[in-house]
Amino acid sequence: MSEQRFGTLPDGRPVLRMTISAHGLTAAVITLGASLQDLRLDGIDHPLVLGFPRLEPYLAEGRYFGAVVGRCANRIAHGRARLDGRELQLDRNQHGRHMLHGGKDGSGQRNWMLADRTPDSLALADHLPAGHMGFPGAMLVRATYTILPGPALMLTILATADETTFCNFAQHSYFNLDGSATVAEHRLTVPAETYLPVDAELIPRGAPAPVAGTHLDFRAPVRLETRLSGPAIDHNLCLDRQRRALPRKVAVLQAGGLSMALRSTEPGLQVYPANHLAPGGAGLAGRPYGRHAGIALESQLWPDAPNHPDYPSAELQPGQLYRQTTVMGFHRTAKG
């Protein structure tokens, strides 16, 4: 494993970049957000994720790129939730109205500590104090990236807290398997029968609805070009009603003779094809990223779960171990 200084935050703290490699796969992770900064497969001349060669874009248009976001990923309506009979007022960092990805100082914006490393694995850790972003309980979180035969990149997230709190982490990489300017030629498959309808501010309206007959039906492979010009996609696809003990296949993404099978323990998958991106800093391939340059497939609990008792619960009890596993497996396929 190699380690180097990637840049310096405005407050003077260094951001490190670590690289691990095995089984023909190489992953680079930076301490800011425990973010997957680069991912390469031997024999493929382009990166498989969107990222930047410099730190500065991660503080602007690259916010959340490859990050481990939490302590509560996705949105919480009006930054409010009830827990143990009391009303919590959480940070409202989305348009001053809602919480997004744990608030303005959520885990995806924090500079994690390097906790452990081997040639094919590295672990980062962070401590979120009690009251941080409005959440009760001091929380310890550890994210471990490991390269497995296949090859595959496995991310395991562990967390504990000393008070009852909410906990829902997600890995936020934008994938692009063929190196093109957009993911239009990618094919996506997700075996979800239902999704969460949302309002204009992307807050779930209530109960899941069938994907059948909608632009969110990915049960058979869908060429993304046929969906990108229609209604905007930024939705949770409902895979289950609870977290699984072992990861199972939740999505397949294919393009340019390469396939990625995504397996996860989580009951939801937020699908977001980078609708907001506009050209800014140069990316890993030397060019800025535009709209639909990548697609995020975020394994997590359902959004706004603290405000919906019928959703999979985001509560974490004192001493209870939160464990999430997500595996990104790659193999070559015939082009076409």
UniProtKB/TrEMBL annotation:
Pathway: Carbohydrate metabolism; hexose metabolism. The keyword Protein biosynthesis does not apply. GO terms for molecular function: isomerase activity. Keywords: Carbohydrate metabolism, Isomerase. InterPro entries: Aldose_1-epimerase, Aldose_1/G6P_1-epimerase, Gal_mutarotase_sf_dom, Galactose_mutarotase-like, GH-type_carb-bd. Its EC number is 5.1.3.3. CDD domains: galactose_mutarotase_like (cd09019). It catalyses: alpha-D-glucose = beta-D-glucose. It is an enzyme of class 5 (isomerase). It comes from the Bacteria. Belongs to the aldose epimerase family. This is Aldose 1-epimerase. It comes from Paracoccus simplex.
